[in-house]
Amino acid sequence: MPEPCYIPSKMLIHCADVMQTDQNATAFGIHAKLESIDRQFIVQPAFEKVYADAAMIKRGYRQSENVEVLKGHGRFTGPKILAAEGFDEELTAETI
Q: Is residue 60 domain-shared with residue 76, that is, in the same domain?
């Protein structure tokens, strides 16, 4: 991707903007034709950014004090009360 974009949605929007610019080029005497779109080339960097950010966030949580990371399904059973798959006791906290 020629122009650096660091937010996944903006990465995709930038590609759409470039395509729109190409389509509006006739107003300036430029006649260009869109041959094809390489979806993989456009989408892959956005996915990679999302996965890298998610991994960084998980590492940050795991290294934080007073934070417990649970993997699995859970459901709220009351205000500030969470039942988590694989845990016998319900979890309570001011912030869940």
A: no
